[in-house]
Amino acid sequence: TEIYRRAIELIRKGGETLDGDLQALKEAVLPLSLGGITYGHFIKGLRDEID
Questions:
Q1: What CA–CA distance (Å, rounded) separates 13 from 15?
Q2: How far is Cα 46 from Cα 48, in angstroms, rounded to an integer?
């Protein structure tokens, strides 16, 4: 949940560095996700779709 809170805070704050900040967070989380239930999504990625 800490990771989600950090992501939400980054998005709330916004700014010019948002893309880089989110990418840095994703890269920091990646090693934690290896082998867990989120493994496939972090490696393969997800498409953002809203119908």
A1: 6
A2: 6
pLDDT at residue 7, rounded to an integer: 92
Cα 35–30–19 angle (5° rounding)?
155
Amino acid letter for position 45: G
* Sequence ranges of the domains in the chain: 2-44
**SS (HEC) of the chain:** CHHHHHHHHHHHHCCCCHHHHHHHHHHHHHHHHCCCCCHHHHHHCCCCCCC
The pTM assigned to this predicted structure is 0.58
Q: pLDDT per residue over 18-28, tens digit each?
A: 999 999 999 88
pLDDT < 70: residue spans in the chain = 33-51
